[in-house]
Write a structure and sequence with these properties.
8-stranded mixed beta sheet; 8 strands; 353 residues; alpha/beta
């Protein structure tokens, strides 16, 4: 897999990047009309991290996607999910530290920690790299689930890098989201007479927990009940592209998921997630903020997200509820994201020129 990656390596930079000093990026766009499609490793904060850039025109606005998980990169699925978007936008996927192809290149052991601040600085360095590479002053930032945590950390630290932030399945704070998820799933199980699920949830007890397995157990029940009231995404979305579907790549992806999950939850409930409290970071934003929430999302409750949204002060903001959608994206979520991009963000970009 790594030999194949080396052959396809189209990105390069020298030295380490930091949030303050971006990776040295040779501009790739000779003209606004030039298409771009490249993938490869870029040295970000001392390690090589996987970035893909796809677009029909270098002059189009750039979207930097911050994937969820952590450990669940969108790179293997981006061509299927976002087919057609590259005509209007340049799409940038980044496999975060400890995830996907970045994990394949450098496999950390469980005693090598991930921190929110480190991941934030990586994201800012990636944004700076992409800006220089494509000759763009600002990017559009899109984060979902875990990516919505990291996205807010990034825009709070370096708002000048971004035109706008679009958060989907927005996490607000660890305790409120987790306790709310537990109560919602328990209520649904009781209403359905699902005694097996009720018994298992009762055995877990209400969060917070010290056993990292408990969240995974609750998430299975969460998905079970969300599936009853949501529309499934197209089946081809979650089939990895051939480059990412070799036996080695799939094995690395599974190992990365395990590593990132433990870093997220912590062996004693003390991982990155336990430290998340976005309102405590301040609710004044220097750029437009748009939140999209599935009405059936049990993990990141739209009620919790709405309270957070109402407290936010931003130059522009909007809150979008997506019917028949849960925590995981489906076509309705994608359509809502596209609508926000075309009807909310695009006019702002024109006004900035």
């Amino acid at each position: 897999m790594l030999k194949k990656a080396a052959l396809l390596l189209l990105l390069s930079c020298a030295g380490a990047a930091s949030a303050a000093e971006p990776a040295t990026a040779r501009a790739v766009c000779a003209s606004a009309a030039q298409p771009v499609r490249e993938q490869g490793y870029v040295t970000i904060n001392g390690i090589e991290q996987w970035i893909t850039i796809t677009g029909a025109r270098c002059g189009n606005p750039v979207i930097l996607f911050i994937h969820g998980g952590p450990g669940n990169p969108l790179s293997p699925f981006a061509d299927a999910i976002y087919q057609g978007w590259e005509q209007q936008y340049t799409l940038v996927q980044w496999d975060q530290r400890g995830a996907g192809m970045t994990y394949s290149k450098q496999r950390p052991t469980q005693d090598v920690p991930l921190t929110l601040e480190q991941m934030r600085d990586d994201g800012i360095a990636v944004a700076n790299y992409v800006r220089h590479r494509l000759g763009q002053d600002k990017l559009i930032l899109m984060g979902s689930s875990w990516g919505s945590i990291l996205g807010v950390y990034m825009i709070k630290a370096s708002p000048a890098l971004f035109h706008a932030y679009i958060g989907t399945a927005q996490v607000v704070d660890a305790r409120t989201n987790l306790v709310g998820m537990y109560r919602e799933v328990m209520a649904l199980a009781k209403a359905a007479g699902d005694t097996a699920t009720v018994d298992k949830l009762t055995a877990l007890g209400s969060p917070p927990w010290t056993d990292p397995r408990n969240f995974g157990i609750l998430r299975r029940f969460d998905r079970k009940y969300e599936a009853l009231t949501t529309d499934a995404p197209p089946k081809n979305w979650w089939q990895p592209a051939p480059f990412y579907a070799t036996p080695q790549a799939l094995a690395d992806a599974e190992a990365a998921d395990d590593y990132s999950y433990i870093q997220f939850m912590g062996m004693r409930g003390d991982g990155m997630f336990s430290k998340v409290d976005l309102p405590a970071m301040g609710t004044t934003f220097e750029l437009p903020v748009y939140l999209l929430m599935g009405t059936q999302d049990l993990l990141t409750s739209p009620v919790v997200a709405r309270r957070y949204f109402d407290s936010i002060s931003a130059p522009h903001k909007d809150f979008v509820l997506v019917p028949r959608a849960g925590h995981d994206p489906n076509q309705a979520v994608l359509d809502a994201q596209w609508k926000v991009l075309r009807e909310k963000v695009a006019p702002l970009l024109k006004a900035e020129k």
